[in-house]
Amino acid sequence: MKKTTFAAKEEEYMNQTEQAPNVESILKAIRSLSEKDLLYLLSKLFEQSPMLSPSLNSFVVENKFTDGVVCPYCGKKHVRRNRHRKDGAQKYMCAECGKSFVARTNTITAGSRKPLEIWKKYIDCMVNELPIRKAAEECDMAASTSFAWRHKILDALRNMSEGVTLSGITESDDTYFPLSFKGNHQKSRDFDMGRPARKRGGDGISKGLSDDLVCVPCAVDRKGNSVAEVSNLGECSASDLDNVLGSKIADGSTFCTDGSKAQRKFASSHGLECVQIKGGKSKKGIFHIQHINSYHSILKKFIENFNGVSTKYLNNYLAWNNFVNYSKKTIQEQKAVLLNFALTTAKRVTYDMIPARPAVPLLAAAGKNQSLKLT
Question: Less packed terminus of the chain by CB within 10 Å, N or C?
Answer without folding.
Answer: N
